[in-house]
Amino acid sequence: MLNVNNISLKVGNFELKEINFSVDKGEYFVILGLSGVGKSLLLETIAGLRKPDNGSIFLRGKDISKEKIQNLNISIVYQDAVLFPHKSVYENIAYPLKSRKAKNIKDEVLRCAALTGIEDKLGRKPDTLSGGEIQRAALARSLASGSDIFLLDEPLSSLDSKSAYELRILFRKLNREGITVIHVTHNYEEAVSLASKIGVMESGKLVHIDSPQEILRHPKSEFIAHFIGVKNFLSGVLKTIPENDLKLFITGGIGIFVLTEMEPGEAFLAISPDEISISNKTEESSSRNHFKGKITDIARARLGIDVTIDAGIEFIALISTDSLKELDLEIGKTVWINFKASSCKIYK
Amino acid sequence: MFSTIKNYTPLSLVFTFLGGMLLLFIIAPITGMYFNTTAAGLTESIGDESVRSSIWLSIWTSIGATIIFSFFAIPLAYILARKNFPLKNFVNSIIDIPIIIPHSAAGIAVLGIITRESFLGRAADLIGLRFVGAPAGIMIAMAFVSIPFLINAARDGFAAVPERFEKIALTMGASPSRVFFTISLPLAWRSILSGLILMWGRGMSEFGAVIIVAYNPQTAPVMIFERFTSYGLKYSVPAAALFVTVCLCLFIIFRMVKKKNNA
Description:
The complex is a heterodimer of chains A (348) and B (263).
Chain A: E1 2-11, E2 14-23, E3 28-32, H1 39-46, E4 54-59, E5 62-63, E6 75-77, H2 89-99, H3 105-116, H4 131-144, E7 149-153, H5 161-176, E8 180-185, H6 188-194, E9 197-202, E10 205-210, H7 212-217, H8 222-227, E11 232-240, E12 247-251, E13 254-258, E14 265-271, E15 277-279, E16 289-300, E17 305-310, E18 314-319, H9 321-326, E19 334-339, E20 345-347
Chain B: H1 2-6, H2 10-35, H3 39-47, H4 49-82, H5 88-100, H6 103-114, H7 119-126, H8 135-159, H9 163-171, H10 176-204, H11 208-213, H12 220-231, H13 233-262
Helix pairs in contact in B: 3-13, 4-8, 4-10, 4-12, 5-8, 6-8, 8-10, 9-10, 10-13, 12-13
């Protein structure tokens, strides 16, 4: 239904870089990323509100750069500035119908309002509605526009948890009824609960597109790794070591020995904090990785203590309170960290 | 009231005193003018056909100038609020020029483009329209000095309308002109109305530019000036008081319309 081919766009100092993805009819595609990574900009580009510097966007098989925005039949719902403030809910929902000179406007407004559960608020002005009601009215207006693809820009961000939950149910319902959705959010749980496909965005780039299950299983970004509790997540290059079953993972100027069958090349490395031990001196053991570093943070974890050590790159080790006392660890102290090559998980 | 004053800090009391002095500075000359006007003098002014016609001329030419020029000013304000283009700051500066130049000089500048020797004057002559010494010229002079008030207010009004509303409307199948008339213009209307009232008020009270373009027919400010120079303060005060009263009444009516519009 939608094919985004290699689009790039520069706005001020910010840049969307070589974005590629496609969305099939009826799919629920969530673009997930932190604030300021370009999610909204990408959404506005898909809606035809901004022209990409390079690349092309095909919607229903047609190049959108050759179509007028008002003929694209694509609907965008923003987090704020949603409803026209000078019009009642009824007038808001009727707006696209009047724009397209539709017949039976009243019937259509009532139908769309009933679908989104806003039929009892039609006479109200937007400033008298709650956040959830505003979003419902905006969705009713999008339905009235006859669009079969909705672009939702952080639609749940400013809502309380109950309203957000109810709206999630409504999004799923609309999606089941055939509406294709592209939903932008920084909320990981929102993405996982709604998406049939997730695109992870970082610094103007879509770095990972996959099913929610795959994204969870093999994170390829620090953002996702952080959410699923992987605290030591590194991206780097994997290299073979001649006549050795170990390989070397190069990242941030240091080399980490790993035991893996993965082919050399760009890769990601994850080490669980409980696999890293701390010592005050170098120790002889089966661990292949020993790095000297300074403690930069000590924080209580759900179970035990998280100690952050800067060894050129930051590692987090999980230790017990007893160990903390016994080793006399404190912020600023220089220590050694040790972990086995086999405890490093490598994936591409 | 006393409890409010009790809550005042020394700084706010000083500010209130200074502000009060300024209000007095505005109110005192106007009320003084009324004290210097006798009922008989005011009645005589109302009965004077030349006073009435000059006040009426000021009213309709200023309203006419405001309406006619708003058709040019509002689109320009929209472009300035929404589009980025080379020399935009320069264009914004040009708009403010009529505010900073002496109004007599503005009148001379306007006269230069509307005399019968000018292109505009010759073109108007072909359809029997005269500017110099005519209401059309008065309207141009009024508009020249007062148009910045409308453009600036309307530009700020359009700029305050979130662009997202217009974007949403476009994706809803509305044409750009429908978006302008149903979204941008209604949402910026408060500021535009303020600008229209300011432009009208400034145009109606204009003297310097108008007297150079048209000594006759006389607008109210020119008529008051003529009475002052020919007969002195005593004879000019009743006419001035009458004109100020009319201005204030119209101003209050327009403000009430604006308030109703805001509600």
